[in-house]
Amino acid sequence: MKRHLPRLARIASGAGLRALPTAIGIVIIGFLLLQVAPGDAADVWAGESGGGSIEATTAIRHQFGLDLPVLVQLRHYLWGLAHGDLGWSVRFAVPVTQLVFARLGGTLLLSGAALLVAVVTGVVLGVAMAANEGRWIDRALSVVVLLIYSLPSFWIGLMMIVVFSIHLGWFPSGGAETIGGPEDGLGWALDRARYMVLPVISLALFYVAIYARLVRVAMIEAKAQDYVRTARAKGLSERRILVRHILRNALLPLTTVAGMHVGGMLGGTVVVETIYGWPGLGRLAFESVMGRDFRVLLGILLLSSFLVILANALVDILHGLLDPRVGVSHAA
Burial, 2: exposed, middle or buried (Cβ in 10 Å; 0-12, 13-18, 19+)? Predict the structure, then answer.
């Protein structure tokens, strides 16, 4: 591992240098696009309060700077961002930083568990399909994977609630933990896990189908390479060839695609968290859209962007461990 550290450090530093301008560009583009959306938080407040007076609505806009020119608002936002201030939520009446970080843990837990389930299950199915290429197991699993890929996540979530929550009663239909339940220890962890099962499966199934087909194709291509035939000629066992040579090289495209899917998975939490009432950034984004609370949306966008950039940096480092040639290309 120590001999890889200089090369991995070069890869990580290169990813870090690309992160800052990318994040700034995302913030500016996101800010300008949100300004095009009709209405603002003052309009929503007036509608929810039964038609607030023009004076009250104008006062809210002036209080939060919503009546300033767009470029002036952008300048104020970037200045506050440079000092670690993401602004103030008009709808929730708390700092955006406090609101976003309070929901961050739930989304990271949900999306992280879903990504882990998707990768592990996808690899297992892909290996089983590739090992039985052309046989009935391969054909049956291919049909199942295609069916999973074709079903939308919101429909899967609703059907899982109907089957496993309403009819069978195995899992709760929504929420994150039992009210009045255990507050710590193993009991709390098991209670939290029960509430995570359905959301995690709903979020992971789509990606399971992608990873299974990707691993299958990559392993079939790897089995035909010269280094696999050389390994067999040396008398290595089929299991060692499968793990050390075929599967290791098949994981390179999988890690690349999984890193690209981090952003899509964070976006997918909007649907899943809304369906299951899970307290995370996805549900917060939905509530912010409905309330035209654009400062909260920008905070979620910025944080999600950093998570995606971090995920891609970790993928680059993982590629450096799986394939030494990656470090050479990054260094060049």
Answer: exposed
Name residue 283's amino acid: R
Cα 311-297-118 angle, rounded to 5 deg? 35
Q: Would you say 281 and 269 are in contact if contact means Cβ atoms under 8 Å apart?
A: yes
List of domains in the chain: 1-91+294-332 (no CATH), 105-290 (1.10.3720.10)
Q: What is the C-alpha separation between 233 and 245, in angstroms, rounded?
A: 14
C-alpha gyration radius of the chain: 24
Q: Which range has the worst mean pLDDT, 28-32, 86-90, 103-107? A: 86-90
Give pLDDT tens digits for 9-68.
554 555 555 666 777 787 788 788 877 776 666 666 666 565 556 666 777 776 676 777
Contacts of 295 (CB under 8 A, 6+ apart): 77, 86, 87, 88, 89, 90, 96
